[in-house]
Design a protein that fits this description.
The protein is of the alpha/beta class. The chain contains 10 helices and 6 strands; from the N terminus they run H-H-E-E-H-E-H-H-H-H-H-H-E-E-H-E. Strands 1-3-2-4-5-6 form a 6-stranded mixed β-sheet. The N terminus is likely disordered.
Length: 241
Protein backbone atom coordinates (compact mmCIF):
# COMPACT_ATOMS: atom_id res chain seq x y z
CA UNK A 1 0.00 0.00 0.00
CA UNK A 2 1.43 3.35 -1.02
CA UNK A 3 2.10 5.90 1.68
CA UNK A 4 -0.08 9.01 2.01
CA UNK A 5 1.26 11.93 -0.04
CA UNK A 6 1.37 15.34 1.61
CA UNK A 7 -0.02 18.36 -0.34
CA UNK A 8 2.59 21.07 -0.72
CA UNK A 9 0.95 24.45 -1.47
CA UNK A 10 4.31 26.10 -2.17
CA UNK A 11 5.14 23.57 -4.88
CA UNK A 12 1.71 24.04 -6.46
CA UNK A 13 2.14 27.85 -6.48
CA UNK A 14 5.55 27.46 -8.12
CA UNK A 15 4.12 25.24 -10.86
CA UNK A 16 1.30 27.70 -11.56
CA UNK A 17 3.75 30.63 -11.68
CA UNK A 18 6.04 28.80 -14.13
CA UNK A 19 3.05 27.97 -16.34
CA UNK A 20 1.98 31.61 -16.39
CA UNK A 21 5.49 32.78 -17.31
CA UNK A 22 5.73 30.24 -20.14
CA UNK A 23 2.32 31.27 -21.40
CA UNK A 24 3.30 34.95 -21.40
CA UNK A 25 6.60 34.31 -23.22
CA UNK A 26 5.03 32.07 -25.85
CA UNK A 27 2.17 34.48 -26.33
CA UNK A 28 4.54 37.40 -26.76
CA UNK A 29 6.74 35.54 -29.20
CA UNK A 30 3.80 34.47 -31.29
CA UNK A 31 2.02 37.83 -31.37
CA UNK A 32 -0.40 36.92 -28.59
CA UNK A 33 -2.71 39.75 -27.58
CA UNK A 34 -2.52 41.40 -31.01
CA UNK A 35 -5.92 42.11 -32.56
CA UNK A 36 -6.94 42.81 -36.14
CA UNK A 37 -10.57 43.86 -36.08
CA UNK A 38 -10.56 45.96 -39.24
CA UNK A 39 -7.18 45.48 -40.86
CA UNK A 40 -8.54 42.83 -43.20
CA UNK A 41 -10.66 45.51 -44.88
CA UNK A 42 -7.62 47.33 -46.25
CA UNK A 43 -5.41 44.27 -46.67
CA UNK A 44 -6.19 44.08 -50.40
CA UNK A 45 -5.62 47.80 -50.97
CA UNK A 46 -2.94 48.57 -53.57
CA UNK A 47 0.27 49.89 -52.01
CA UNK A 48 2.06 52.96 -53.32
CA UNK A 49 5.78 52.42 -53.84
CA UNK A 50 7.33 54.22 -50.88
CA UNK A 51 10.31 55.22 -53.01
CA UNK A 52 7.96 57.42 -55.03
CA UNK A 53 6.98 59.58 -52.07
CA UNK A 54 8.48 63.04 -51.90
CA UNK A 55 7.77 66.45 -50.41
CA UNK A 56 4.57 66.39 -48.41
CA UNK A 57 3.18 63.26 -50.04
CA UNK A 58 1.83 60.36 -48.03
CA UNK A 59 0.57 56.84 -48.68
CA UNK A 60 -2.60 56.74 -50.77
CA UNK A 61 -5.75 54.65 -50.70
CA UNK A 62 -8.19 54.74 -53.60
CA UNK A 63 -8.46 55.64 -57.25
CA UNK A 64 -5.94 58.26 -58.39
CA UNK A 65 -8.70 59.77 -60.54
CA UNK A 66 -11.30 59.95 -57.77
CA UNK A 67 -13.30 63.22 -57.87
CA UNK A 68 -12.76 63.88 -54.15
CA UNK A 69 -9.41 64.00 -52.36
CA UNK A 70 -9.48 63.48 -48.60
CA UNK A 71 -6.22 64.43 -46.90
CA UNK A 72 -5.83 63.20 -43.34
CA UNK A 73 -3.19 64.66 -41.02
CA UNK A 74 -2.85 62.24 -38.16
CA UNK A 75 -0.75 61.19 -35.18
CA UNK A 76 -0.79 57.46 -34.38
CA UNK A 77 -0.51 58.19 -30.64
CA UNK A 78 -3.36 60.70 -30.63
CA UNK A 79 -6.47 59.30 -28.87
CA UNK A 80 -8.75 61.41 -31.10
CA UNK A 81 -7.08 59.94 -34.20
CA UNK A 82 -7.76 56.49 -32.76
CA UNK A 83 -11.38 57.56 -32.22
CA UNK A 84 -11.59 58.61 -35.87
CA UNK A 85 -10.17 55.26 -36.97
CA UNK A 86 -12.54 53.30 -34.72
CA UNK A 87 -15.72 55.23 -35.47
CA UNK A 88 -15.30 56.64 -38.97
CA UNK A 89 -12.30 55.46 -41.02
CA UNK A 90 -13.65 52.08 -42.09
CA UNK A 91 -17.03 53.56 -43.03
CA UNK A 92 -15.27 56.11 -45.21
CA UNK A 93 -13.09 53.42 -46.76
CA UNK A 94 -15.93 51.03 -47.52
CA UNK A 95 -18.43 53.68 -48.65
CA UNK A 96 -16.28 56.06 -50.68
CA UNK A 97 -12.69 54.87 -51.14
CA UNK A 98 -13.38 51.33 -52.36
CA UNK A 99 -16.07 52.65 -54.69
CA UNK A 100 -13.67 55.04 -56.43
CA UNK A 101 -15.30 58.24 -55.23
CA UNK A 102 -12.61 59.34 -52.76
CA UNK A 103 -8.83 59.17 -52.74
CA UNK A 104 -7.43 59.15 -49.20
CA UNK A 105 -3.99 60.64 -48.64
CA UNK A 106 -2.64 59.83 -45.18
CA UNK A 107 -0.09 62.31 -43.85
CA UNK A 108 1.85 62.15 -40.62
CA UNK A 109 1.53 64.97 -38.13
CA UNK A 110 3.23 63.73 -34.94
CA UNK A 111 2.57 66.03 -32.00
CA UNK A 112 5.62 67.02 -29.97
CA UNK A 113 4.21 65.72 -26.67
CA UNK A 114 3.59 62.22 -28.09
CA UNK A 115 6.96 60.50 -27.75
CA UNK A 116 5.86 57.37 -29.62
CA UNK A 117 4.14 59.07 -32.55
CA UNK A 118 7.19 59.24 -34.82
CA UNK A 119 8.32 55.66 -34.05
CA UNK A 120 4.80 54.47 -34.87
CA UNK A 121 4.81 56.34 -38.17
CA UNK A 122 8.18 54.79 -38.98
CA UNK A 123 6.80 51.34 -38.14
CA UNK A 124 4.00 51.84 -40.67
CA UNK A 125 6.48 52.83 -43.39
CA UNK A 126 8.71 49.88 -42.52
CA UNK A 127 5.73 47.56 -42.93
CA UNK A 128 5.12 49.34 -46.23
CA UNK A 129 8.52 48.14 -47.44
CA UNK A 130 6.96 44.68 -47.26
CA UNK A 131 3.73 45.81 -48.95
CA UNK A 132 1.75 46.05 -45.74
CA UNK A 133 1.60 49.74 -44.89
CA UNK A 134 -2.17 49.73 -44.43
CA UNK A 135 -2.14 46.52 -42.42
CA UNK A 136 0.26 48.15 -39.95
CA UNK A 137 -1.72 51.42 -40.05
CA UNK A 138 -4.84 49.55 -38.95
CA UNK A 139 -3.03 47.37 -36.42
CA UNK A 140 -1.40 50.36 -34.73
CA UNK A 141 -4.78 51.87 -33.97
CA UNK A 142 -6.38 48.54 -33.08
CA UNK A 143 -3.57 47.75 -30.63
CA UNK A 144 -3.14 51.31 -29.39
CA UNK A 145 -2.97 50.40 -25.70
CA UNK A 146 -0.08 47.97 -26.25
CA UNK A 147 2.42 50.56 -27.45
CA UNK A 148 1.12 54.11 -26.93
CA UNK A 149 2.56 54.52 -23.42
CA UNK A 150 5.41 52.07 -23.74
CA UNK A 151 8.93 53.24 -22.94
CA UNK A 152 10.16 50.91 -25.71
CA UNK A 153 7.44 50.87 -28.37
CA UNK A 154 9.61 49.15 -30.98
CA UNK A 155 9.26 45.93 -28.99
CA UNK A 156 5.51 46.08 -29.49
CA UNK A 157 5.86 47.09 -33.14
CA UNK A 158 7.95 43.97 -33.73
CA UNK A 159 5.25 41.86 -32.06
CA UNK A 160 2.68 43.38 -34.40
CA UNK A 161 5.00 42.80 -37.37
CA UNK A 162 5.27 39.13 -36.41
CA UNK A 163 1.49 38.86 -36.21
CA UNK A 164 1.29 40.44 -39.67
CA UNK A 165 3.78 37.80 -40.85
CA UNK A 166 6.40 40.34 -41.89
CA UNK A 167 10.09 39.53 -42.13
CA UNK A 168 11.01 40.77 -38.68
CA UNK A 169 14.77 41.08 -39.22
CA UNK A 170 14.22 43.43 -42.14
CA UNK A 171 11.52 45.26 -40.20
CA UNK A 172 13.74 45.77 -37.14
CA UNK A 173 16.59 47.04 -39.29
CA UNK A 174 14.26 49.51 -40.94
CA UNK A 175 13.01 50.86 -37.60
CA UNK A 176 16.44 52.29 -36.80
CA UNK A 177 17.41 53.25 -40.35
CA UNK A 178 16.11 56.83 -40.36
CA UNK A 179 14.88 56.29 -43.93
CA UNK A 180 11.50 57.88 -43.37
CA UNK A 181 12.32 60.81 -41.10
CA UNK A 182 12.39 63.23 -44.05
CA UNK A 183 8.96 62.12 -45.31
CA UNK A 184 7.42 62.49 -41.86
CA UNK A 185 9.00 65.94 -41.43
CA UNK A 186 7.77 67.01 -44.87
CA UNK A 187 4.23 65.83 -44.09
CA UNK A 188 4.19 67.87 -40.91
CA UNK A 189 5.72 70.96 -42.54
CA UNK A 190 3.04 70.87 -45.22
CA UNK A 191 0.37 70.57 -42.54
CA UNK A 192 1.74 73.61 -40.71
CA UNK A 193 1.58 75.64 -43.93
CA UNK A 194 -2.07 74.64 -44.32
CA UNK A 195 -2.90 75.74 -40.79
CA UNK A 196 -2.98 72.36 -39.06
CA UNK A 197 -2.44 72.80 -35.32
CA UNK A 198 -3.82 69.54 -33.93
CA UNK A 199 -4.92 66.08 -34.92
CA UNK A 200 -6.79 64.68 -36.60
CA UNK A 201 -7.25 67.32 -39.29
CA UNK A 202 -8.66 66.79 -42.76
CA UNK A 203 -9.04 68.56 -46.09
CA UNK A 204 -11.85 67.47 -48.40
CA UNK A 205 -11.02 68.99 -51.79
CA UNK A 206 -9.38 71.80 -49.86
CA UNK A 207 -12.13 72.28 -47.26
CA UNK A 208 -10.72 71.99 -43.76
CA UNK A 209 -12.34 69.67 -41.23
CA UNK A 210 -11.00 69.63 -37.67
CA UNK A 211 -11.43 66.88 -35.12
CA UNK A 212 -12.80 63.36 -34.89
CA UNK A 213 -16.05 64.17 -36.63
CA UNK A 214 -18.73 61.49 -37.03
CA UNK A 215 -19.21 59.75 -40.37
CA UNK A 216 -22.34 61.80 -41.08
CA UNK A 217 -20.27 65.00 -41.23
CA UNK A 218 -17.81 63.49 -43.70
CA UNK A 219 -20.66 62.04 -45.75
CA UNK A 220 -22.31 65.44 -46.07
CA UNK A 221 -19.07 67.19 -47.02
CA UNK A 222 -18.01 64.51 -49.51
CA UNK A 223 -21.39 64.58 -51.22
CA UNK A 224 -21.15 68.37 -51.33
CA UNK A 225 -17.62 68.19 -52.76
CA UNK A 226 -18.92 66.11 -55.65
CA UNK A 227 -21.26 68.97 -56.58
CA UNK A 228 -19.89 71.39 -59.23
CA UNK A 229 -19.78 74.43 -56.92
CA UNK A 230 -18.37 73.52 -53.51
CA UNK A 231 -17.51 76.44 -51.20
CA UNK A 232 -14.49 76.22 -48.93
CA UNK A 233 -15.13 76.63 -45.22
CA UNK A 234 -13.78 75.14 -42.02
CA UNK A 235 -15.76 72.68 -39.94
CA UNK A 236 -14.64 72.22 -36.35
CA UNK A 237 -15.87 70.31 -33.32
CA UNK A 238 -14.82 70.89 -29.74
CA UNK A 239 -13.49 67.73 -28.14
CA UNK A 240 -13.11 67.17 -24.45
CA UNK A 241 -11.74 64.07 -22.76
Amino acid sequence: MAGKQNFNPWMMSTVVLIALIIGYVVGGMGGGGITFEGSGDTADAPEIALGELSGGEGPILGDSDAPVVLEEYSDYQCPYCKRHYTNTFMQLYNTYVKTGQVRLEFKDYPLSFHANAVPAAVAAYCAGEQKNYWGMHDALYENFDLWAKSTNPNVEFVRIAKALKLKTKNFEKCLSSGNYDAIIDANQAEGVKKGVTGTPAFFINGKKVVGAQPFSVFKSLIEEAMEPEAVEEEVEVELTE
